[in-house]
């Protein structure tokens, strides 16, 4: 039985906004914790499919998993770019659709780079100053800070993000 089990969050798990979560790749130990969040959708940033154990957890829970960046490796827009702008924009469209997608969780292998970029671009959309954005990014990146990721966030053009004003999240 699960009676004595503890709820253990995945690596680099965090709350971005109400019902908007971020984390690294969950392992089986984390499933009971995730179950309690009643997640409706997962944005999965990886060129690899999720591990089989996680795939079955997701389908058992009736969670919709959207893999972003599957073709990322093939079509690198420019060599230095850590992530294509298109992937970030697609992710933000999903994140801004609170009505249909929440609770939602953003996942990459360690919850650091790709998720960090998406959250950073979201913060820019929220008009956070860069100091605060990078502070949050570094809190998750630890010693693995990538200058190119911070540069990507800094240069990200929030005008490219389109959303329905009538349906935008309260925190925007």
From TrEMBL:
InterPro entries: PFA-DSPs (IPR020428), Prot-tyrosine_phosphatase-like (IPR029021), Siw14-like (IPR004861). Its EC number is 3.1.3.48. Pfam families: Y_phosphatase2. It is found in: Cytoplasm. It comes from the Eukaryota. GO terms for molecular function: protein tyrosine phosphatase activity. Its main location: cytoplasm. One of its GO terms (cellular component) is cytoplasm. Keywords: Cytoplasm, Hydrolase, Protein phosphatase. PANTHER family: TYROSINE-PROTEIN PHOSPHATASE, TYROSINE-PROTEIN PHOSPHATASE OCA1-RELATED. This is protein-tyrosine-phosphatase. It comes from Hemiselmis andersenii (Cryptophyte alga).
